[in-house]
């Protein structure tokens, strides 16, 4: 029978914990690089872990709880990665939705998965706006600023949304509860 210490070590092989350990081991090493509008954007492991903690806390501030679903409709971007792994760090279930699907299938996936919050690449807001009235449960919409277009209601700007929240290490998420 495993001791409490051994059990904790076993349960700590969680996706969110990988980022915490990496940020401590190599904080200044580049974790992500993206080319956007002719510029190179990069995050170190320390910065990435900080963003993940902020994202998880920001999502919690909306009333989303561990095990709740967060939908992701986006293209490759640093913010998409932060949203995806921030869900893991916060104990939320990420529901990536392929933006190449037809609107009916996107609505089905979002509704069938019981998505509470939807993170959308700003390039895809017209797609989501066309189906928003068919989305049953999602009450919060967050815009990834891939093009830098201004954000309008009901969308929250990704960085304005996460920045006010603490980047302190989030507590371990181990199982439902």
Question: Can you give me a brief rundown of this structure?
Answer:
With 177 residues, the protein is α/β, with parallel strands linked by helices. It is 39% helix and 21% strand. The mean pLDDT is 90.
Task: Describe it.
The protein is α/β, with parallel strands linked by helices and 177 residues long. 39% of the residues lie in helices and 21% in strands. The strands form 2 sheets. It has a 5-stranded parallel sheet with strand order 4-3-5-6-7, with helices on both faces. The longest helix has 17 residues, at 45-61. The mean pLDDT is 90.
List the helices and strands and how they pair.
Elements: H1 4-11, H2 15-25, E1 30-36, E2 39-44, H3 45-61, E3 69-73, H4 78-90, E4 93-96, H5 103-112, E5 115-121, H6 125-129, E6 140-144, E7 155-157, H7 158-162
Parallel strand pairs: 3-4, 3-5, 5-6, 6-7
Antiparallel strand pairs: 1-2
**Alpha carbon gap, first and last residue:** 23 Å
Number of strands: 7
Poorly predicted parts: none
> Which class of secondary structure composition applies to the elements?
alpha/beta
CATH topology of the domain at 51-162: Rossmann fold
The overall average pLDDT, rounded, is 90
- Individual helix count: 7
H-E string = HHEEHEHEHEHEEH
Instruction: State the CATH class of the domain at 51-162.
Output: Alpha Beta
The share of residues in extended strands comes to: 15-25%
Strand ordering within the main sheet: 4-3-5-6-7
Radius of gyration: 17 Å
């Amino acid at each position: 029978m495993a001791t409490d210490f051994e059990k904790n070590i076993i349960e700590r092989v969680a996706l969110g914990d990988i980022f915490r350990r990496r940020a401590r081991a190599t904080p200044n090493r580049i974790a992500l690089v993206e080319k956007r509008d002719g510029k190179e954007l990069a995050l170190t492991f320390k910065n990435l872990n900080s963003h993940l903690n902020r994202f998880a806390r920001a999502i919690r501030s909306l009333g989303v709880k561990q095990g709740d679903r967060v939908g992701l409709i986006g293209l490759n971007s640093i913010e998409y990665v932060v949203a995806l792994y921030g869900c893991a760090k916060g104990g939320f279930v990420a529901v990536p939705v392929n933006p190449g699907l037809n609107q009916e299938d996107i609505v089905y996936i979002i509704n069938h998965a019981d998505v509470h919050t939807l993170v959308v690449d700003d390039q895809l807001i017209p797609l989501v706006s066309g189906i928003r009235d068919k989305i049953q449960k999602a009450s919060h919409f967050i815009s990834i600023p891939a093009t830098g277009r201004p954000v309008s209601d009901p969308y929250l700007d990704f960085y304005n949304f996460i920045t006010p929240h603490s980047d302190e290490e989030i507590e371990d998420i181990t199982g439902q509860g």
